[in-house]
Specification:
Blueprint (H helix, E strand, L loop, with lengths): L1 H9 L1 H20 L1 H29 L1 H18 L4 E3 L12 E3 L1 E11 L5 E6 L12 E3 L4 E8 L4 E8 L4 E5 L5 E5 L7 E8 L9 E4 L11 E10 L5 E8 L8 E7 L2 H16 L1
Antiparallel strand pairs: 1-2, 3-4, 3-14, 4-7, 5-6, 5-14, 6-7, 8-9, 8-11, 9-10, 10-13, 11-12, 12-13
Helix pairs in contact: 2-3
């Protein structure tokens, strides 16, 4: 307190000057309409700027919870999309609304760990078997395919991403349905290779590649990427197509885990047929 008194005593001329200046401004504003209006307008602008800045800061801190809410909402919308259902009957009439049966169910998740610079890359998500996650479920983002679930614990799961030498995705040209297996060559996180495309297929740079109907994990027509270039495989009547992936794995945050509720039935039937052919 003593130091404060000493400081004011040493600089009282300055503080007196400020006080007189403030008094002059007050008298000027109070006794002149033009100056009063200008002062009020200026103070309103300052207040508006301060309030706007404060609001922007508050909104920034709410972004995380808002993104999580939107991701959950999008998962619900995907699950109720008509493309997530399969037709049970070709007739016009049905009892108790049984024309459609839900085929795909979406669960939103967040990537808590992710690698892109290894030969076999994995992603860790904050969802596990407590949230209904199982092995071999498709994982997609708003931009396109990501990979499929591998190991599952109580509250987490690992995803074998597209950027893994052991990952194979059935993909096709959106324009004509020509399909083949898509694999990663381990070079760049931005590109993968679509193989076994017949040489009669006409393609140009920028053609869209999507998931095919041959996949039991991924819904059909999920974005994979676009054609970057292509070349003919040596001594084979096929093209190898370099595909620029639509998902940016360096920025991956929010994803959707997709359950095909009819996958087990299809897998068991196909396995039974394969075993029958071996006999």
């Amino acid at each position: 307190m003593r130091n404060l008194v000493v400081f004011i005593a040493k600089n009282y001329f300055f503080f007196l000057f400020l006080l007189l200046e403030a008094l002059c401004i007050y008298l000027l504003v109070q006794n002149n309409k033009f100056q009063r209006a200008s002062f009020i307008n200026s103070s309103n602008q300052v207040s508006a700027t301060v309030l706007s800045t404060s609001e922007n800061i508050q909104q920034y801190f709410y972004l995380k919870s808002e993104n999580e809410r939107l991701a959950k909402e999008n998962a619900e919308l995907h699950s109720h999309d008509l493309l997530s259902f399969s037709v049970l009957t070709d007739g016009w009439f049905a009892v108790n609304d049984t024309i459609y049966r839900q085929k795909y169910v979406y669960t939103n998740a967040k990537a808590v760990n992710n690698s892109t610079n290894l030969r076999n890359n994995f992603i860790t998500l904050d969802r596990g078997y407590k949230q209904g996650i199982k092995k071999n479920m498709a994982v997609i983002s708003s931009a396109g395919v990501v990979g499929h679930t591998q190991d599952v614990s109580e509250n987490f799961c690992t995803v074998m991403s597209v950027l893994n030498s052991k990952t194979t995705i059935n993909a096709k040209f959106k324009k004509d349905g020509s399909f083949g297996p898509l694999n990663w060559d381990g070079v760049s996180y931005e590109f993968a290779t679509l193989n076994d495309i017949p040489t009669h297929v006409k393609m140009v740079k920028g053609d869209t590649i999507v998931t095919s109907q041959n996949s039991t994990m991924f819904p059909e027509n999920i974005m994979v990427g676009t054609v970057e270039s292509y070349y003919r495989e040596e001594a084979k009547p096929f093209f190898a197509v370099k595909v620029k992936l639509s998902t940016d794995f360096k920025k991956l945050t929010h994803v959707y885990i997709v359950e095909n509720k009819l996958k087990q039935e299809q897998d068991e039937l196909e396995k039974k047929s394969e075993e029958g052919n071996k006999e």
